[in-house]
Amino acid sequence: MHFPRTGKLAQQKAMWIDCGIHAREWISPAFCLWFVHHSLSFYQQNSEITRILDSMDVYVLPVMNPDGYKYTWTRRWWRKNRSISKSGFCVGVDLNRNFDVDWVKGSSQNPCEEINCGPFPESEPEAQAVANFLRRHKDTVQLYITIHSYSQMFIFPYSYTFDQAENHNDLMVQEAAQRIKRYYRNTYTYGPGAATLYPCSGGSDDWAYKLGIKYSFTFELQDRGEYGFLLPPSHISGACNEALLAVKTIAVKVLEKT
Ligand code: 0X9
Ligand code: ZN
Q1: In this predicted model, what pLDDT tens digit does every residue of 181-214 receive, in sequence order?
Q2: What is the pLDDT of residues 90-122, one digit of tens each?
Q3: Is the ipTM of this complex over 0.90?
Q4: Is-cis flag, bond preceding 209, omega within 30?
C-alpha cells in the first residue's frame, strides 16, 4: 500500500513500515492494517497523521512473509518463510537473518533451525523484494519501521555489533515510551538491539540503517510474555493503538529532524 503525499509543496520524504516478517507474530500484520485504517479514517481529523500524510509518502507492506503466515493458520508456531532447502530435508529461512549485513554470523545455515539465514544474503524473494524497493527509494525514505512481537520494545541499530550508531541519541525514543505510559499505562523499553535484546546479524533494521536510512527501528509489540504470540483478540486494539502512537511520535520527530 502506498499513500502518496497529499500536500502540494511537500518535500521528497518518505517512511516505510513492514509487518509479518515472522509468521507467528500475528499482532504484526494486524498493526499494519490498523495503521492503514487510521490513516484513511483520521486524515484531517487527527493532527499528527495529517501532518505525516501531508509531508511524507508512506509505504506499508502488510505481510512480508505471506506463505509462512498462511502456514500458521494450521501450524501456529511457525516463524520462517516456506522455502524448500537444497537438500529438501527442512523448510524455511528466517527472513530477519537473510539481509546482507554481517550475514551468517550468529545465525545458522542449517535449514532445520529456526534462525536459518538461508544459503546466501537475500537468497529469499521476500527479503530481496524489500531490499530492492528500499535501494530504489533510499534517497527519500528517512524512516524504516519493522513490526514484530513480542516484548514491548523499540529496538534500533545495531544488532550485529555492539558499536554505537552514529545518531544513537536521536534513536533513543523516550518520548514514544513516555506517551505510551501516559496514555495506555503500558511499559516499553528501548535501546540498541545487541545490548538491549541480543546480538544478531542479517536483520532488516541494521541493513536499512547501513543503506542510509538513519531512523531505523524494530518494534516488538505486546505483550511481555503472558500470552506471547497467542495475544487474545481483546488485546488487539490496545496493542495497535499504543504502537500507532509510537509510530506517529517517531515519524513527527523525523520530520522535525530531517
Ligand atoms: O530476532 C529477531 O529477529 C527479532 N525478535 S523476534 O522475537 N520478533 O524474532 C528482533 C530483531 C532485532 N533486530 C535485529 N536482530 N537486527
Ligand atoms: Zn519477529
Answers
A1: 999 999 999 999 999 999 999 999 999 999 999 9
A2: 999 999 999 999 998 888 899 999 999 999 999
A3: yes
A4: no
Asked if residue 62 belongs to a domain, the reply is: yes
Cα 243 to middle of ligand 2, angstroms: 15
pTM score: 0.96
Nearest-CA residue for atom 10 of ligand 1: 218
144 within a domain of the structure (yes/no)? yes
On whether residue 111 sits in a domain, the answer given is no
The CATH code of the domain that includes 83 is 3.40.630.10
**Pocket lining: 92 vs ligand 1, CB cutoff 6 Å:** no
